[in-house]
TrEMBL record:
One of its GO terms (molecular function) is GTPase activity. It is found in: Cytoplasm. HAMAP family: GTPase_RsgA. Its main location: cytoplasm. This is Small ribosomal subunit biogenesis GTPase RsgA. Its EC number is 3.6.1.-. Residues 70-216 form the EngC GTPase domain. It comes from the Bacteria.
């Protein structure tokens, strides 16, 4: 019997199989193999008196480490256009992570009531120039939400972005209910409700929306230094055209990417971010040894 993990809490996994959800535990062999089931996994399960056991994890098409979720096809990278201002360094980290995970990224900018039309156009141009679509939304009024909702069809979509940009409100708008705990402090557990504490898949529009814990920093230094250049779409026209095979667009002479930066064809701030990240990866590897 094959299904998909939609939630995992305390060693139990909740598997969607056709029109029902089955509570399962994983076989011990997964612990021994250092392979743990993830939300989003397609799995084969066996049943014993309505209790399920995960027997096999099927191959993953994509895998995110943080949030821990697999088989995502699309990411809404949510930032506020103002309050707080866009942290482009952090935005770049999310975009690189999506590229490395083979996930199609769409940048969604919330709180558009706080900026002028000119500011919107300038930000849109900046992000379009590096190869990403921008959608403007106002999660409080619902402006732009219908477009996001329609783009969920037949996709497994993850919402990611820093804290304080309206992700919780946006998920509520997309699902049409107070799915996430926002607002008042929970009397039962005695803590604020602005944080989602586990990842789960919400079935919507013939697909799934991944409800993920909010976080504001993201590590991409695990990416191989020779693979990092492929996480920058604007480099695609120049990869393979440098003087040396395997050029990482760093200190090598005759680099087509560096030439494109000098000619203004590639955003210099993005290139600087690439170099900074590449150096972090190289230094981390040195420190390991």
């Amino acid at each position: 019997m094959t299904g998909r993990i939609i939630k995992g809490i305390g060693g139990f996994y909740y598997i969607k199989v056709e029109d029902r959800i089955i509570e399962c535990k994983a076989r011990g062999k997964f612990r021994h193999n250092s392979m743990k089931p993830m939300v989003g996994d397609y799995v084969e399960i066996s049943l014993d008196k309505d209790k399920g056991v995960i027997e096999k994890i099927l191959d993953r098409n994509s895998e995110l480490i943080r949030p821990t979720v697999s088989n995502v096809t699309q990411a809404y990278v949510v930032f506020a256009i103002k309050n707080p201002d866009i942290n482009y360094d952090l935005l770049n980290r999310f975009l690189v992570l999506c590229e490395n995970s083979n996930i199609h990224a769409i940048v969604c900018l919330n709180k558009i009531d706080l900026c002028t039309e000119e500011e919107k156009l300038e930000v849109k141009r900046k992000i379009n120039d590096i190869g990403y679509e921008v959608l403007f939304i106002n999660a409080k009024t619902g402006e732009g939400i219908e477009t996001l909702f329609n783009r969920l069809e037949n996709q497994t979509t993850v919402l990611c972005g820093p804290s304080g940009v309206g992700k919780s409100t946006l998920i509520n708008m997309l699902t049409g209910k107070d799915h996430m705990e926002t607002g008042k402090v929970s009397d039962k557990i005695g803590r604020g409700k602005h944080t989602t504490r586990h990842s789960e898949l919400i079935e919507i529009k013939n697909g799934y929306l991944v409800d993920t814990p909010g976080f504001s920093t993201i590590d991409i230094n695990f990416i191989d230094k020779d693979q990092l250049k492929y996480c920058f779409p604007e480099f695609n026209d120049y990869n393979g055209k440098c003087k040396f095979n395997g050029c990482n667009h760093y200190k090598e002479p005759g680099c087509a990417v560096k030439e494109a930066v000098e000619q203004g064809k590639i955003n210099s701030n993005r290139y600087d971010f690439y170099i900074k990240t590449l150096e972090e990866i190289i230094n981390r590897r040195k420190n390991k040894w």
